Automatic annotation (TrEMBL):
GO terms for molecular function: D-ribulose-phosphate 3-epimerase activity; metal ion binding. This is Ribulose-phosphate 3-epimerase. The lineage of its organism: Eukaryota, Metazoa, Ecdysozoa, Arthropoda, Crustacea. InterPro entries: Aldolase_TIM, Ribul_P_3_epim, Ribul_P_3_epim-like, RibuloseP-bd_barrel. Its cofactor is Fe(2+); a divalent metal cation; Mn(2+); Zn(2+).
Length: 226
């Protein structure tokens, strides 16, 4: 029997993309100590997006340094099928692939689940939201990108909120994540549209007081969820 549906709760996941790359361990620990609910780790392959970050060897080294953290892997890669088992072995908890990067999202979702991870499905700004609907049953989370994937520190695309609203109406119990350009000035739009998993990169990691920013973001989302 399927587990009973649970109302989505607010979770704040800092992206360490714009942190000090020579000291990511410290940045991750700092984010968790500042009240992060999870860590959003951006994997870029220089092909699906025009930038490179890190892969499963880095995740494997990071895992024991932050043993309690939930790792949400944002896989901006062209062959998402290829890295499922290596990421699971490295200690990833959720594997978010882009719908644009696969020809068989259903099989990929199954592969991720069999590897013991939660399934996330992401859509780029140019992808219509209805593309993801047939696969929603296979997913734990849908990610609506609010910038063109590839770089941190970009401007939030408010017109993506219609996708979030559409998904929230259709899937009241689903985790819906937003990612890109989110901080104190843009959180209200995300919260009102119905997002409950909030990725925030530069606004949190560059803040003098990351704890205060995380708490502000959480407060705004919780106000709407209640
Ligand atoms: O996936 C991403 C970029 O492709 C990052 O997660 C995102 O950009 C977070 O950084 P910021 O909050 O600075 O925009
Ligand atoms: Fe991301």
């Amino acid at each position: 029997m399927a587990a009973p549906a649970q109302k989505p709760t607010c979770k704040i996941g800092p992206s360490i993309l714009n942190a000090d790359l020579s000291n990511l361990q410290e940045s991750c620990i700092k984010m968790m100590d500042s009240g992060a609910d999870y860590l959003h780790l951006d994997v870029m392959d220089g092909h699906f997006v025009p930038n490179l970050t890190f892969g499963h060897p880095f995740v494997k080294c990071l895992r024991p340094k932050v043993p309690e953290a939930f790792f949400d892997m944002h896989m901006m890669v062209s062959d998402p099928e290829k890295w499922v088992e290596p990421m699971a072995d490295a200690g990833a908890n959720q594997y978010t692939f882009h719908i644009e990067a696969t020809e068989n999202a259903k099989a990929l979702a199954r592969q991720i689940r069999e590897a013991g991870m939660k399934v996330g499905i992401g859509i780029k700004p140019g992808t219509p939201v209805d593309v993801v609907v047939p696969y929603a049953d296979e997913a734990d989370m849908i990610l609506v990108m609010t910038v063109e994937p590839g770089f941190g520190g970009q401007k939030f695309m408010g017109d993506m909120m219609s996708k979030v609203k559409f998904l929230r109406e259709k899937f009241p119990d689903m985790d819906i994540e937003v990612d890109g350009g989110i901080g104190p000035n843009t959180i209200d739009a995300c919260a009102e549209a119905g997002a409950n998993m909030i990725v925030s990169g530069s606004a949190v990691v560059n803040a003098e007081n990351p704890e205060a920013v995380i708490s502000l973001l959480r407060g705004r989302v919780q106000n709407v969820l209640q």
